[in-house]
Amino acid sequence: MGWTFVRRGGPEQLDAETLLAKARAEVESKTVPANRQPPLDAAGFRMVVEDVFYIAGRGVFVTGRISAGELRVNDPIVIMRRGRRRAATVVEAIEQSHERLDQAKTGDTVGLQLAEITRREITSGDILTAPM
Questions:
Q1: How confident is the model over 91-115, as pLDDT tens digits?
Q2: Residue 79 in contact with residue 124, Cβ under 8 Å?
């Protein structure tokens, strides 16, 4: 199309193809910083807490859908809130539709019985993850 670009600091004139080639070379030469957070599938277990219940004689139950990884009974987990570690606990039981399970995987909506956690230590919206 015959576009000509004039750089304001000198008499050099560049056509569009030369300008694009220089821009591509600059972009390719720069290193892209690595993402700080690992992808979800590499991070292991992850579940967002939807509800929290206290059942007398049994303890604290949380419900939610597992968004990544899998979980087994007696696995250690960490409770995160706003990106900070709140508490660590162990899964005592996994239930789905009033049925006990030995393990749960991505996509399952489950209830987890947590050991040594009080109702006040965990709230809706907290994230359960595998310890790192």
A1: 999 999 989 999 999 999 999 999 9
A2: no
SS3 letters for 11-39?
CCEEEHHHHHHHHHHHHHHCCCCCCCCCC
Angle, CA of 45, 50 and 54, to the nearest 5°: 100
The residue assigned the tokens 């006990």 is: 100
**CB burial class (10 A; 0-12, 13-18, 19+) of residue 43?**
middle
Distance of CA 121 to the CA centre of its chain: 21
| C-beta of residue 87 within 8 angstroms of C-beta of residue 79 | yes
State the amino acid at position 93 in one-letter form. A
Burial of residue 71, with CB atoms counted within 10 A of its CB: 0-12 exposed, 13-18 middle, 19 or more buried: buried
Q: Spell out the domains of the chain, with CATH numbers in brackets.
A: 1-32 (no CATH), 40-129 (2.40.30.10)
